[in-house]
Amino acid sequence: MQTVIEVFLLLVGFAMLIKGADVFVDASVSIAKRLRIPTVVIGLTVVALGTSLPEAVVSIAAAIGGSNALAVGNVVGSNVFNIMVVIGLCALLKPVIVNFKDISRDYWVSAGAAAALLIMMIVFSDTIPRYGSLILFAAFISYITALVLKALKNRKSEQDTESDESTPMPMVKTIIFAVLGAALIIAGGQLTVSNAVALALTLGITERVVGLTIVAIGTSLPELVTSLVAIKKGEEGIAVGNIVGSNIFNILFVLGISGLVMPLAVDANLIFDIIVLLVCSFVFLLFARTRTRISRLEGSAMLMIYVAYMVYIVLF
Predict the structure, then answer these.
(1) Does the pLDDT at position 160 exceed 70?
(2) Where are the domains of the chain?
(3) What value does the mean pLDDT of the chain take?
(4) Distance CA 231, CA 96 (A)
(5) One-character DSSP codes across 256-280
(6) Helix, strand, or coil (residue 206)
(7) In angstroms, what CA-CA distances link 266 with 81, 83, 117?
(8) pLDDT in tens, 202-234
């Protein structure tokens, strides 16, 4: 009976995620139009932060509870899932046009954050000290500051070149939709994760594998649903910006905060997973730079890479 209840709550969580993502994307596009900011910037900030909150809640709670492998595994696994599965499924739904010029700096920040985490894992063979996490968090603050300044600088040019003449929602309605959408995403994500973990732990799966698989996939569902909805609505900027921005938030913000709360213990096995994350980042770069889009074939290849990775970590 308990299992039936957990499965039912999983389905409720999925429904909340889907509806929340739909509402949140509409509000985000409206915000972009009202502030005359490119939608890719909204994807890299507002949408990325909103969809990264489940990772933040889970990882911080795991760090406080001493489950460091779960905290780091959640972030690394979520980032791999975001790149390979979310982008891959978006490409299967509709070839994803990537204006790499718009996200070039953000992509390198994302890849650089993963590389920095790898270096810390290797250098600090036991525990990443708080000052290491402080470096990550300081980099996050610097990145957000630069992004906001860039957005303010581009407001006038966006107004001059805006081709979409559709009217944004009234401000009050926009705020209500943004708050409601974010609340549904967060609540749905937590409901999904808590019940997925309860089911997975009965199988005796290790903490690292739980973090890299069930928890990572669960906390990445907001990114998945939000990006798929954005692609369906023709908002490729939000879809791609959401993934790149979420990956930056996950490492610099989530692990930065988690490590400040409780120093992160180093799990040697996670070094391999971070290397996989860097390889996946390179695959995304390679596919995005070919004809400035990710085709359905390339999306299928990304999904196959992720499946192979999942099979490997579960079996070995």
Answers:
(1) no
(2) 39-160+207-315
(3) 84
(4) 8
(5) HHHHHHSPEEP-HHHHHHHHHHHHH
(6) coil
(7) 21, 24, 11
(8) 777 777 888 898 888 888 888 898 889 889 888
